[in-house]
Structure formats: structure tokens, C-alpha cells
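Minutes, structural biology subgroup

Action item carried over from last meeting: produce the C-alpha cell record for Methyltransferase-like 25 (Antrostomus carolinensis). EB confirmed the sequence was re-checked against the source entry. Recorded below for completeness.
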Amino acid sequence: DDDTFSDVFCENSKKLINVHLFALAAKYYSLSNLGVCTPLEDILEALRGGNQGTTDIKTDKFMNNKKSHEVQVMSELVDKIANYCGIKQVIDIGSGKGYLSSFLSMQYNLKVYGIDSSSSNTNGACERNRKLKKHWRAYQNQGRANLKSQRLEKANHRPVESEIKCKTINEKPLNNDSSLQSQDQVTIEVLVPSCGFTEIATSETSRQTEVDLVARTQSHGSKLSEEVLPILNVLPADAVEVFSSTQCISGELCKEEKAQRKMASLKAKASKSSESNLHFPLTSCITAETELSDIVTDLEDCMMVGLHTCGDLAANTLRIFTAKPEIKAVCSVGCCYHLLSEQFENQEDCPEEVWGFPMCQYLKDKGWHCGRNARMSACLALERVAVGQVLPTESLFYRAVLQVIIEEMYGVTKSDRHVGKTFSKSSSFIDYVRKSLKKLELDDAKLPDSCIMDYYEKYKHRMNELEAFNMLKVVLAPCIEVLILLDRLCYLKEQDNIAWSGLVKLFDPVKSPRCCAVIALKKDSC
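Output recorded by EB:
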């Protein structure tokens, strides 16, 4: 009952009078409590029809823990959606340095175009591409060398017993062949990374290689073929050479083994032909009117993704998705709400302008606006604060006092320039103020050190008030974020060509605070 929270603010002064009720109200209207999110497990279940085939890829060698977590979770979902829609092309909007793009291409064999407005990011993605290819080749060569080494040790191993306990390999097959789920799989002792990202676990049984399997008697030949050959579909196509028991015994290949060799050869050729391009980094500024076919010359049926698309880019991603028939699905995680443009923030009547908020007709009809302060609050991370990660109170205090200084001493109330991360590069408050004034192109010579410190001393006793105020902003953050996310979801619900749309919590909010994705599939893709 909304009346429960009617006593949070004073009816006359509008001041906060009940902090406890304020916190309860904020929790009540948060995304987790409203029940509007679709569980990720339900989505994956619907897309793949079961819980099998989950990848367990280690990406922390190529990116930090936060990015690794995001890329692993989102890439698996994107792959399932792409398979469900029967598409192989992915457009990664705001791709940055290509972390998601390269992983989707290498691990899931998708053709990915990463588009970013920053040429430095695109160049960084190209350089990262080069390094990843180098690692990929190295891992493949290591796998071949290990297999050859094991063959040389053939005489030193005992014959295998008639029954071999096999451990299932849970790596994602490179060719996405779902039939592998039902085939027998065998673990080899050598560590052979899959697609350059992870390693297959060793068997816990006695030291046993596929060379030992070759030494099995002819009576076990058919079982050997069933157990060993599927491993070729798990590894990169040219990581191993096909072998068989009959090769050592009679020199003749059965039909199954001939077909397997042919398939491995075709995969090896396909792998070599595509290896030069893990993904395609492109530089372009994306707007709601962007024609993707002008950027991606071979545009085909595809899906659009965005991992932490900044500001209006998240909204424009959804607009492009609904407008372009080639785009069959979208998976977008937005961020930087403070950079959203708002149609009604300044009460300007610009009907032809495309705004980041609001998107849905319902909020447009009501002339809804948040304002920059509210959007800034939406960027705060309640879950991180809840587990003990403190707010940067001192840097916020520095910034607040600086605001007073530039207003009173320079008469500046608004500027297009930004202070940025000056606090982390400053040795003291005086140093911070002087560096900030230079960034704002204001003359710091007119401001002596004593004057700067007078401002500091005047307001330092209010630092606790500032901390308390920011804690209230943190508590309110999820409510503002849910408004922005529901606006985007409602926009999709208003479209006639959408078969399904929803909000899905993808990431651990402590690791990645902007953790919710807006996902949609078009009617002709299902």
C-alpha cells in the first residue's frame, strides 16, 4: 500500500522526516522487489532446452576480473540467442577494446563487427586482436607438441583395461554441434586449451593417453571410435591429428573414421581461412538514424549487442533494433545514466530531436523528467556499499567545496569542461583546487593558498553531513535506475514487431553494478 510511505516526508516542508521508512520505500520500488526481471536461468533454459553445454572458460588471462565476469556471462547468452534465431552475425555497439567481440568470435565462432566511436579504442581492439591470435596459435602448437610427445612414450605405458572411466568434458564445442551432448566423451591427460582461453582438466585416473587407447585390441575398436573421436570436436579444428585403432592394426579406415577425417580436414581449412580475423573493429559514431549497412557492407540477419553502452547509445541501440529488419534480436546493458539526454529536463519543445529519456510513449505523455542529479544518483552502487565498499567521501567533499569556490570567486555556475579524476592525482586540497581551476581554464593566480584553505576549514565540519546525504542517494539509486530501465522495456512493449522482450539480471552487482540487460526478439526470428 503506497499510503504506508506517506509519512516519509513532511507534508508542508517536504523534508525527510523518517529515514527508516525512506529506506523501506526505496527497497519496495527497486527492480529486485518489483518482480519485473526474468531470471537468467529461465532464459538460458528456454533457449537451449536444458542445462547442458555450459562453458567454463577462463578469460582472466586476457582481462580483469570484472570484465572477465561480464564477458563470460553475456557471451554465453548472446550465443544462445544467436543459435535460437539461426544467425551467425553479431553487431557489438560501443565495443571499446573488443573484449566481448573477440570472445564471441573465438569461443563461439560468431562473425562479429565491433563498432566504437573512438579510433583509439578501435586501434586498441586491433592490437588486442593480434595478441589473441598469437596466443591462440601458441596453444594449438602446444597441443600438437604434447600429443606427439605422448606417442613417443607409447612403449612405456601399460595396456588399458577393458573398462575405462571417462570424465565428461564440459567445454563448449567450437562448431556448436549440439549432437555432441549425447555422445561419449573421453578425457586426455595432456592439457590442451580450447580456443586459446582455457584448459581441459586432466583425468584423475592413472596416466593414460590416447596412444594407450590405440593399443587396445581390435575387439574394442568400435568403442574406441565412439569414445575418442568426439574429442576432435571439442578442441580447435587443427589442434590434433585424427588417429584410429585400425590405423595401427590393418592400415584400413572404416567409413566412420574416413568421414571423421574429412570433417576434421574441412574444419581445419575453415579455421585457417578465418583465423586472420577474430572480429572486425570499426570506427563510427552511432545515432538513432545510423544506417548499419553503410558501416557493415555485408550486413545480413544479425543480432545487436552492447556491453555497458554509454548514455544515449543504449537508447539508440534499441531504436535501431526496432527500425532495421535485419536485426533479429538485441541484448543491451546500458551505463552512464548521467549522460542521458532528457526531452523535458529544460522544458524545451524540440519534438524532432531524439532523446535518451524518456523513450516510451507513456512517460512522454506525462512529460516525465529525472534531472542530472537524479541520473547521477542512479549510477551509484548500493550493493557495493552494502558489502563494505565505502563511498569516496573525501573526493566528494573536495568537489563540493570547489563548486563553492568557483561560484563565489569566479562567478561560474555552469561549464562545459570537467574536472575529471583530479582527486587521485592531487597531493592536497590546495593542489586539487589549482589543478581543477586549470582544467576549467580559470586563473588560479588570483587565489592564494590561504584563501583556498579558508574555504576548506569553513566546510570541513560538514563532511559528515555530506556522507549522510550521499548514503541517502545510494539507497535511492535503484529506484531511479528501475525507472530508466522500465522506460526502455515499455518502449519495446509498444512496438508491433517484437515477439518477446524483458529485463534480465546478468551480472553479480557487486562485481558489475550496471548488471541488467534489456533483451528482445523479433517476431520473424522465433
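Discussion: The chain has a mean pLDDT of 76.
Next step: EB to file the record with the rest of the batch.
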